[in-house]
Batch of 2 targets.
Target 1
Amino acid sequence: MYIGDWLKFEERNLYCRHAVTILSGQKLVSGTVLGVVTASGKYVAFDGSQGDGRQTAAGILVFDVDASATGTNADTQGTIIARGPATINPNQLTWLAAQTAYVAAALASLLALGIVAGTGE
C-alpha cells in the first residue's frame, strides 16, 4: 500500500501530519486506521470492539511501521494524518479483521478531525 492509494489531498506543508508513538507488538502498513489506548496515549490499530480508547479513530498511518517486537522499549515512532483538511479514499484504508460493523463510526470520527472520506479519484 502506498500513501497515494488512500490519501487524495492534504493541506500544504504537512499540516495534517503528526508524530506519534506506536505501541509495541504491531506491524502496521500505510493506510491503517489507528486509535489511541487511553491509559498509555500510544497508538494502535483501530478496533471498534474494544473499550480502551482504540474504538475511536484518531488518525491514519502514513508510512509502514514495524513495532512487532515486544517490551517497553519496543514502541516505535510513526507519522499519522491526524487532522484536516485532508481527503482519503475509504476503500483503500487498512482495517483489522472483523471491523466492518465499525467502519461508519470510524469514518465519522475521522470526519470530526477534518479528514473527509471520498471515493472521487
Target 2
Amino acid sequence: MSVTVYTKPDCPPCNATKKYLTRDGIEFTEVDLTNNEEAYNLVTSLGHKYTPVVVTGSTHWSGFRPDKIASLKILK
C-alpha cells in the first residue's frame, strides 16, 4: 500500500496526520506542495483545497482525519 501525504510548512493538521501515520506504523511519502507545481496541480485536480491531502490508491482525502488513518492501519 502506497501512501502519499501532500503538505505545506507550518501546517498543524499536516503535522498531526504525519504523527498519527508514524504512530500507527504506516509508511508514507511526504510531498511539499509549496515547492512542487506538479503535485499542487494533482491535488487541486482531485478537488482538494486544504492540506494535508492523503492519497492511497484511488482513495484520497484532505484535512486531519483520524478515522481515515485508522482505516489505513486496518488495511496494513
